[in-house]
């Protein structure tokens, strides 16, 4: 079973004098308030919470300290320091903050070196860990319930294979004559056989696993730095790259779904703007719960694809539109 765990980030170096704080809640509050008072700007908004943690809070954290970020921002929202907005499932951003909050008035926040924040923005991103999983459905629950699983629980393919293997061995369903075949008991037969296969009693291992996974709900467990792991039902939506014609001559490159991968669209747009000396803006996606798109002047597919692959280290299978770049190079 895939289990979630609290997201933690360790600060390895301290470049400013920070008072010793032993209590974790007090440390979080101190770093949070310092970030609001001395680091974050209105122009940074909207800001991914993972970026806020690394770029704005972490520099105020003493060396060797670990910040646990699980439910802290929700508490800060309830105390009216900030307002959060869910851009998509599991991806939050800070949409507003209140620097005039009474609890910030008497806070003396240390000054940070100007360069440190710029470096932090450049190095803040860590690619997500994406684990493709299969969720137990009503149809497949009889196979797993005796092993302690419930409907909706998720398993990676490796875990799934192990559970099926254990079930087969426990129930002595592997034939001695041909170990590549599995004897179907009533549970396996009910899950795997079609209506016109009622008299079939054996299935090859690979076919057995394929038929079982076909009856399960596919999903992805996404682990983003600084955030709780998120389970998404269905296949992982890729980052989409498209060149769109606007007007008779103008073209723009549109990048969608960056936030699903923990990429801050504002930071991404700025990087493209500086590198290509062109306009790059962020706009709300027309699709519900799809966050913000980046719109770049001109056809910048080659540079953007290289940026995603090399700097952000996004696997090719999660980028839609790379094939158009390859075709353009061949011409």
Give the tally of structural domains. Answer: 3
N-to-C terminal Cα separation, in Å? Answer: 48 Å
Structural class: alpha+beta
So, the CATH homologous superfamily of the largest domain? SWIB/MDM2 domain
The number of helical elements comes to: 11
Major beta sheet, strand line-up: 14-15-13-12-16
The overall pLDDT average reads 83
Alpha-carbon Rg, integer: 25 Å
Poorly predicted ranges: 1-16, 115-119
User: Which geometry do the CA atoms define?
Assistant: globular
Query: How many β-strand runs?
Result: 16
Sequence of secondary-structure elements: EHEHEHEEHEHEHEHEHEEEEHEEHEH
CATH class of the largest domain, named Mainly Alpha
Q: What's the CATH architecture name of the largest domain?
A: Orthogonal Bundle
Specify the biggest β-sheet. Answer: 5 strands, mixed
How much of the sequence lies in strands comes to 15-25%
- CATH level-3 fold name of the largest domain: MDM2
Percent of residues in helices comes to 25-40%
Domain DM2: 132-215
Domain SUI1: 239-312
GO molecular function: translation initiation factor activity
GO biological process, one term: formation of translation preinitiation complex
């Amino acid at each position: 079973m895939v289990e979630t765990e609290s997201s933690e980030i360790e600060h390895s170096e301290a470049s400013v004098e920070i008072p010793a704080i032993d209590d974790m809640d007090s440390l979080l509050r101190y770093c949070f308030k310092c970030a609001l008072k001395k680091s974050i700007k209105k122009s940074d908004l909207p800001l991914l919470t993972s970026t806020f943690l690394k770029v704005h809070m972490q520099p105020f954290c003493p060396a060797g300290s670990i910040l646990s970020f699980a439910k802290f921002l929700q508490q800060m929202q309830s105390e009216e320091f900030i307002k959060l907005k869910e851009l998509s499932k599991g991806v939050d951003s800070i949409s507003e903050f209140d620097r005039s909050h009474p609890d910030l008035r008497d806070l003396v926040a240390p000054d940070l070196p100007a360069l440190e924040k710029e470096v932090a923005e450049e190095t803040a991103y860590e690619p997500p860990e994406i684990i493709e999983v299969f969720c137990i459905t009503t149809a497949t629950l009889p196979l797993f319930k005796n092993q302690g699983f419930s409907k909706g629980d998720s398993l990676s393919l490796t875990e799934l294979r192990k559970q099926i293997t254990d079930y087969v061995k426990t129930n002595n369903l592997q034939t001695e004559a041909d170990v590549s075949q599995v004897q179907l008991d009533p549970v396996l037969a009910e899950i795997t056989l079609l209506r016109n296969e009622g008299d079939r009693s054996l299935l090859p291992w690979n076919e057995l696993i394929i038929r079982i996974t076909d009856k399960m709900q596919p999903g992805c467990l996404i682990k983003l730095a600084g955030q709780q792991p998120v389970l998404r039902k269905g296949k992982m939506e890729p980052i989409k790259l498209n060149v769109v014609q606007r007007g008779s001559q103008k073209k723009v490159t549109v990048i969608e779904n960056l936030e699903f991968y923990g990429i801050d669209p504002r930071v991404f747009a700025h990087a493209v703007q500086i590198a290509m000396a062109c306009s790059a803006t962020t706009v709300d996606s027309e699709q519900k719960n799809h966050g913000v798109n980046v719109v770049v002047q001109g056809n910048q597919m080659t540079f953007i694809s290289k940026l995603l692959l090399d700097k952000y280290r996004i696997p090719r299978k999660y980028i839609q539109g790379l094939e158009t770049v390859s075709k353009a190079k061949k011409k």
